[in-house]
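Today's session is about reading a structure prediction critically. Students often jump straight to the picture, but the first step is always the sequence itself: look for stretches that repeat, for charged clusters, for runs of hydrophobic residues. Only then move on to the predicted structure, which in these notes is written as discrete structure tokens rather than atom positions. Here is the chain we will use throughout the hour.
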Amino acid sequence: VPYNTYKLTYAQDPKSLTTANHLAPDFVRWEKHRVWVVEGNLKAGARHVYQKRRFYLDEDSWAALASDQYDARGQLYRGSFAFLSQSYDKQVPDATPFMIYDLVGGSYNINGVVGPYGGIRYIDSLSKAQWSPESLAGAGIR
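Below is the predicted structure for this chain, in token form.
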């Protein structure tokens, strides 16, 4: 699974991370880790783009570092990866960069690359009052 992916997370030039068809392999560190495999199947009578999803949960962080998404025909439709690194200043693992491959459409997307923007920034917790519907509505941007 992707692990200790500092090179990807803190890359200063996001354009260097991508190729025409996949993420540039030099930026991803893969490690052999024990994972828990959790599978979810669409319940009878329900509709969703994914018939089945399989998650690979890292046993140390409990982050879903990879997942497979299957369509109604049972074909692998999309594959996703979260790129884990340790945030030593907060003493927590963080899987901010996330990517998804669309295997049917032949495209992919990566987001959460924070290197050019000064790294991951943690904010203070919001008070209970700030979570009220009125407060959240007032904080919105149109």
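Discussion point for the tutorial: Helices lie at 6-9, 133-139.
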